[in-house]
Amino acid sequence: MYAQMVKTDVARVRSLDEMDPVERGFQERVDAGQKIEPKEWMPEGYRKTLVRQISQHAHSEIVGQLPEGNWITRAPTLERKAILLAKVQDEAGHGLYLYCAAETLGVSRDEMYEQLHSGKAKYSSIFNYPTLTWADIGTIGWLVDGAAIMNQVPLQRCSYGPYSRAMIRICKEESFHQRQGYDALMRMVKGTPAQKAMVQDAFNRWWWPSLMMFGPSDDASVHSAQSMAWKIKQNSNDELRQKFVDQTVPQAKYLRLTVPDPDLKWNEEKGGYDFGEPDWEEFFNVIAGNGPCNAERLNARKKAWDDGAWFRDGLTAHANKMADRRTASKIAAE
Ligand code: FAQ
């Protein structure tokens, strides 16, 4: 594991021999599979990496409500509407657990929001694509939540206690999300030719962005080596992408959909699929803020923040009033 020596924002992965005794003790605990808890000593790079990843993950959940939330009023039946409403609410809950987990590392909620609103913090590339039809909603549940589960199940074993525990509940809920998406698509592909075509069209548009969710290829992933040494990540980006393709292609076949990749081919020797390269230029463009919906998504979040100012002001005024009352009654009692 230490052989990869990829540059990260903590310079490079160092061997145990190069570490001072405190850091070596920390690394040995991580290597032994022990959880690190909030008030324990940790290298500054470990803390910063977790704040970066957990806050980006939280932002993804919150921004991720927008493409689907947009369809709640247009769901085709009452049942689908109730299911979608529950799913979108779950995503808000995931964001909140994750913000709480990040706060245990000494960063405030306000700082994290500021980083999102200023464009300094990233959120998942996938949420910068538009949801054009009802089939997009089923496809998001199937592919986007499916990719999220593939990435997040190993995070349940992350070395940082609060993050790993948050992931346990989140993964259970993502699993329901994935099934509801697949179920909606199963219904549609059994419908009219137009409905089936709508599913294929959605699949064509979401397939490649879903593969990009796992991050850049391993040789371009600047953080992977160190994050894996710290057991924040358990698998490389390419490993998880491969697993996702192997799991999803049979599901696509079951729906009688064509995977939009001419290079997709079963490789008997490796026991998995060979597949084409995602368009990395598009990926880097999207994460740089230039995807089809980046501006729309950020504006929606900033508007929600601004619209909530009166409520935050009210809470602060109430808290100040209560504090003043407590001080006054303390003085009176003395
Ligand atoms: N989008 O060196 P690496 C969901 C950035 S939740 C945007 O490989 P790392 C649930 C990366 O941050 C989806 N940026 O980085 C849901 C770094 O930039 P930085 C979110 C990306 O951290 C479903 C740079 O590229 N899930 O879907 C992306 O080792 C439906 C170099 O990359 C998580 O956040 C990307 N796709 O690996 C909600 C899971 N990929 O920070 C609503 C936790 C990479 O230096 C509806 N996160 N970048 O400026 C992770 O597992 C990791 O952070 C990775 C990236 C795998 C995403």
UniProtKB/TrEMBL annotation:
Its EC number is 1.14.13.149. It comes from the Bacteria. It is an enzyme of class 1 (oxidoreductase). GO terms for cellular component: cytosol. Pfam families: PaaA_PaaC (PF05138). SUPFAM superfamilies: Ferritin-like. One of its GO terms (biological process) is phenylacetate catabolic process. Keywords: Oxidoreductase. GO terms for molecular function: phenylacetyl-CoA 1,2-epoxidase activity. InterPro entries: Aromatic_CoA_ox/epox, Ferritin-like, Ferritin-like_SF, PaaA, PaaA_PaaC. This is Ring-1,2-phenylacetyl-CoA epoxidase subunit PaaA. The lineage of its organism: Bacteria, Pseudomonadati, Pseudomonadota, Alphaproteobacteria, Hyphomicrobiales.
